[in-house]
């Protein structure tokens, strides 16, 4: 081979090497690396990095945008193969940073989910106890639509949690908790007298007088405790039988006027025994409501503006059997099962005393339930 031919071969080899090097330099960032960073970027969006790692996510976006800008601006730059490709190194840094931010966001998201779940679980348990308490007291009507609103808020909080909207879940839970606090405060104001020793003492004296009358006259008498929803029959001063009863829809409160659904409190008498066909119910014992004390309270309430101007005092309060539950709850009567009113009907004479009290002791069902609700509020 001649010296000229050898030079040609060496020139061609150098030229090919140069072309290969130049072609390698044109590709600034490996496609798989770019794809990896873009994948991390999508993962951060899905992990809601802007919400759970805002500062770190902002820095990642800033650096990722800067690197993408360099990729576009350096498309025509040629580097020799042996030169360091800083762009690739920076892409690796962006990828690593994005992975750290994604991990931090995921950890914080899970921590917030656990916190929201714990708060909601506690609230749901509190709602369960609250609902049981107001049902135990028979005070749901006192609160109007608020118990339903509370239940809906708690369900809304659960739905937000399952959707991953933790802040909205916590907001709904906080509103539900505040609404429960408001209702407990209202119940304490309306029903707190059930735990008042002086008021309960007055009721207890009323019961003693009735039992003593039964003993002295060797007759039957009735005592009704609204808090415990019990009717007790006494004969000759001794307890004979006790039945569970239902009250008006607002029965736990003291009756003030017709249609309020409350059951009256006081000392009454059976003025008529109404048999089949003589009452809208199965059988009934008609009481002498309103008596003198009831009329006095009604007039005081009317003067004070505590009752509607058009309200009347009403009447027709009975101890009766079933058949018309809706009417019974509207009137504020005392209702038993039919077989129980049968037994009571035969045992009681017209003129027999009937004493209706809120409670006979301070540890009555209403006071206990109210205490439980107040403790849950403080908790």
The outline comes out as rod-shaped
Estimate the strand proportion: 5-15%
The main sheet comes to: 8 strands, mixed
**Element string (H = helix, E = strand):** HHHHHHHHEEEEEHEHEHEH
What is the average per-residue confidence, as pLDDT, rounded to a whole number? 84
Number of domains: 3
CATH architectural name of the largest domain: Beta Barrel
Strand count: 8
Question: Number of DSSP helices?
Answer: 12
| Rg result | 41 Å
Under CATH at level 1, the class of the largest domain stands as Mainly Beta
Output the strand order for the largest sheet.
Answer: 3-2-1-8-4-5-6-7
| N-to-C span | 101 Å
Low-confidence stretches are 9-27
State the secondary-structure class.
alpha+beta
Question: Residue share in helices?
Answer: 55-70%
CATH topology of the largest domain: L,D-transpeptidase catalytic domain-like
Q: Look at the structure and name the CATH superfamily of the largest domain.
A: L,D-transpeptidase catalytic domain-like
